[in-house]
Design brief:
The structure holds two protein chains of two kinds. Chain A is built from 24 helices and no strands. By secondary structure, chain A is mainly α. Chain A has one domain: Orthogonal Bundle (MetI-like fold). In chain B, helix 3 crosses helix 10, helix 4 crosses helix 10 and helix 8 crosses helix 9. Classes of the chains: A mainly alpha, B alpha/beta.
Chain lengths: ~575, ~290
Amino acid sequence: MAEPAITHRARIVPRGEQALAAVTVLAIVGLVVVPLTRLTWVAVGGGGSSIMRVLRAPGFGTAAAHSLELAVLVPLLAVPLGTGIALLLRRPDVPGRGGLRVLVVLPLLIPQFVLGYSWTQAYGRAGFTDDLVGVRWTGLNGPAGIVVVLVVDAAPICYLLNTVGLATRAQPQLELAARASGATGWTALRTVTLPLLRPVLAAEFVLTFVATLESFAAPQVLGTPVGYSTVTTRLYTDLAFGSDPNSFRDAVTLALGLVLVAAVILVPADLVLAPRLGSRRTRQSPGGTALRRRSAGTAIMAGLVGAYAAFAVLLPTIALVAAALTRAIGLAPTPSNWTFDNFRAALDAPTRSAFAHSLQLAVLAAFALTLLGAVLAALERHRPGRLLGTVAMLSFAVPGSALAVGLLIAYDRRLGGTLTLILLAYLAKFWALAHRTVSGAVDRLPAGEWQAARTSGAGPIAAVRTVWLPALAPALIGAWLLVFVSALHEVTMSSLLYSTGSETIAVAVLNSQELGSIGTTAALSVTLTAVLLAVVAPAWLLLRLTARRRDIPAARRRELAHAY
Amino acid sequence: MTLYTCASANVEQAVVTAFEKAHAGATVNVFRAPTGQLNARVAADARSGGVKADVIWACDPLTMHGYDSQGLLRAWSPTNAADIPSAYRTPHFTGIALLYMVVVVHSGAVAPVSWADLAKPQFRGTVALPSPTFAASALGLLGYFASTPGYGVTYYKQLKSNGAVQVNAPADALTGVEQGTYKAGVTLANAAYTDRKKGSPIEVVWPRPGGVAIYGPIGVTTKKDVSPLGEQFASYAASGAGQKVMAGQGTYVTIPGLGGPPLPSGAATVAPDWPSLFGSYSSVLAKYTGIFGG
């Protein structure tokens, strides 16, 4: 029951849209093209010798294979997981739905730099489960552990995108019609719901693929004990010895290699595949959910999601909180060893001002990118616009350290040491997150209604407010959330671009990590998560509300449910 | 003036505050980051108008040799050079802080007498070793053993076949031993003593032939309009007064007798041959990664 793909007709582009396109092109050039070009100059600076040196270095092939293996496996697991959970938690008859929703999203709020530690503490040798029941996971150190931790980290993003997707794309009437015509729940899912979600699923695959390709913390912490290296861990080593110019060039070359791999996947996916995935709405009836009858299956599935949440989210989080509260590493986390010293150390005056800077930057980046992401998504209705979307994704594929170097070389003379330079880095890095979240919803924009609004006298602003905003609200809120969280967690770029007076929370994180005080780092992470929760919870509620408004009115649902 | 450093935040801040207090009107802008980020910042500077720091205070001599070979450091010696052992001085930079790589064991576990013991059966599968591809201090250790008769890179082969586990930073080895994940680990003495004081269940061991010393050097850059405060700051940090401030923050320093963390009587110290390691580190590293991966 898939609907026909969008057809693109030649049309006259209005002047407003031309201006938006010009601004977007400028932003792409400034945020993506210029820094990437600067990096390319660095890489070819030694006469291009670094390319051969990198390719011929012992272990490079293995590391590249590891990076690819992770980048393929993680989306293959995370996307179905996030989708499955979103589809399940969409059902109003799921027991404990509210609590499960919060638990499933929680990993998003826990910074990546403590993810490896909290898992080791929960399941490693002498960890929680080992101490309590004598069970430990020997595979945690190694590719299996890295995949699981990255999947748990990516699943909430997929879940969030699916929630947005279901809110803007699902057509419960079609699902009910399918069921009424005798289709099983699985057939209705396969032939109605999933085809409607295709653009969202594609966005999740692409985002997770690229994010895994450039992930560093999990491979570093869990891969090192078994000698499992990736392109990003090699890049780190090259940078650690980067006072040797050749070593520095090698690091930049590796970063550009990741961009190249991302481009090879993205260009065909965006230009060829993506246009075939969209679907127009049949009439204005998006989102929401159809009433299902309670079944034993629902309860079992809810139990499975609950078990997942307990193992993948709750235990590692408890391990983190315990580390933050315990007086010294290695002591049992019992009340006699509890202390707030770690929190006091983590929240000294400089850190508080760094918190303020980080919050300010994250809010600015979230608003700016929600806007830029929406504009880019709107421009994607034409082929050149889709190319812009692909280019904007490339800076997401550059490891933060390299992107920061590119931005420093390009803009340090004018913006060096300012918060503006850090903001630019966030805009460059996270644009793709916002864009891909919104782009899964734009093909559902009611074009006819826009024209109707304009012809009946609404100005462009009124038309945007009354026609586009309501249709896009869940996607815009989702984009805002993802950028806000990512910006607040960002460590690598901020710690390279800051100066006296423009410190961000990243500086405090690195200071405490360097001192080896896992207690302070854990306390910082817990505080960060609490701050995030305070900001994110209202936004999340808003997302739920805007999504719910799309539900079919209860009376109509009952009527439809009784019809079959 | 601007200072680029990778020294611990508490140590660097204490020295900066003391210097600003002693020099009315002086302000020090600090960029503090781990070595990798420091290198990236210096490399970006070099490509956008030259290094912006007046003073660089690194955590290991290898990094400083790298900057020096790029012509980023000018000839400079602190006024009290004679107080600092010559092993920690070059014409362009001078060691002010010291790190010692030692062994920590979980309370109650057997302590090694020599480094070679870690490769013996009683430590099978229970030793955590920081990776020299991650931390310069671990590379210093590797450099020392690679050129020491009776050890060599073979020592790492023995450790590997005895089930030693590679972790990232020396701090990770310390955490692992404290939590009981490993019985023994190679880490930095100052951090181990700090945690022990807080109550972590560990013992610090200085195995024979000795704790391996890694010095943290400071130098003045070749920045065009270098601030006169630059030399003053570097000299202050190297001075007895400056090093005493550092020792007060729990750091070993290069002038003997100024205090700092415990250095048990009879604890010997040894050091890698840094200038020769600068020329050979990539081949030594390649041999190491051939054994431990990464």
